[in-house]
Design goal:
The complex is a heterodimer of chains A (203) and B (284). Chain A has 10 helices and 5 strands. Chain A has 203 residues and is of the alpha+beta class. The model of chain A is unreliable at 186-203 (pLDDT under 50). Chain B has 284 residues and is mainly alpha-helical. Helix content of chain B is 48%, strand content 6%. Chain B contains 9 helices and 5 strands. In chain B, strand 4 and strand 5 form a beta hairpin. The longest helix of chain B has 24 residues, at 129-152. Residues 9-22 of chain B have low confidence and may be disordered. Classes of the chains: A alpha+beta (203), B mainly alpha (284).
Chain lengths: 203, 284
Amino acid sequence: MISDKHLAQLIEAAIFSSSTPLSIKKLKEKLLAQYLVPSIKIKQTLASIQTDYQNRGVNLVEVASGYQFQIKAEHNDDIALLSEEKPQKYSRALLETMALIAYKQPITRGEIEDVRGVAVSSHIIKTLVERQWVKVVGHKEVPGRPSMYATTKEFLDYFSLKSLEQLPELMPIAKSAITDSTMQDIMSKSTQVSQSIETETKQ
Amino acid sequence: MSAELANQFLKNDEGKMQQQVLPFALIRGEAIIEKPQDLFIPPDALEVILESFEGPLDLLLYLIKRQKFDIVDLPIAPITTQYMSYVELMKGGKLELAAEYLVMAAILAEIKSRLLLPKQQVEEEDSDPRAELVRRLQEYEVIKKAAQDLDDLPRMERDISAAQAKFSESFSYKIREADVDLADLVGALQAVLKRTKAFEHHHITREGLSTRQRMSEILATLQQVENQNFTAFESLFELSEGRDGVVVSFLAILELLKENLIECQQAEELGQIHLRLYRGSISD
């Protein structure tokens, strides 16, 4: 048997020591294997640690692949002053590719290109794979058997999300700048073709 | 930012197009004096434009949003000339990109030419190319917005910092020893040996059993186990091989344990002994 206090301290120390988020499963099977602590108990302990940390500069946060300590959001700007490096900015091409993979996965490179209207550079896919945000999850059964890409837990971890459902909702088509009414507009103009022809001839 | 940049270039060149000052058309009762100037992009600005826009759909979306551009009012000749001059320019450089803009020009030209032709009575089989273009533009717009939203999400390095404690320099992760006593292993061996007696016969096989070969066989067997789950100790023995075979297998298992290639676990006292491929220490 392990006391509640001992358990809480062990879990707290383990999460602090880990460079990646720690899952309940890993805590149970690796850290606490000898104590035979049930998952529910570990979960309760994590919740109590979360409460303990509420008023501290650091919070215990659950992300996709487990638990991790994070600097409290409101202090980030100040803490950032200590950093020598500027956070990386990502190109629109990379963000659009990532958004397509996140929202439309599993998706092939060709399908990404269809939506974006431009070729996807190998460099972007390589960067996304190297950062472990996307991975090949299979091959589409069409000629050429292209790879199908999907996002990973590391992708969710990076954005501090627990699941894909937490991604911002896609903009409804109705809000598009090119709405049906624009379309109607274009259509109605085709009745004014004669006028258009006049335009052409006057030029 | 990209739009503004493009805008500057677009405006800079307005002078070139100013010859069309006369009112040249009446559209829905309104006198049209100026043609949309936007679509003409000076070739010199090409590189900037291409960097500002993520392709022809993005450019078209920008033009439509500013309501300076209507598919019906599209002047084909200047656009085509313009696009062709891009392609000339890009022969040395990004030919792929030029091709994409060229396809868009062709689509626009097709739409325009269809609008100018008298309507045919016969229902055409192909769908309206404008509908397809609008669908693609909408689809692209949704993803463009999603990409911006994604960029706005708080993320590691920029908005979120993970807190981590440092270890003292003398700290090192523990390599977990096999949890099984030698005595338990021997006990398990005896149980297997006992069962081999039932299979024992007196044909003497001349073929020597190689411990190395057996090690590879056991490794291969363990590798086949899905998810690298544990395999029962007993199942690694081929009882029909008799005593010698069992001893060789046991030696092979000991050798593999020694070399840290497999690991051994016993869930409870006097319980089943299980083996699996070595998966490293807690630090992985």
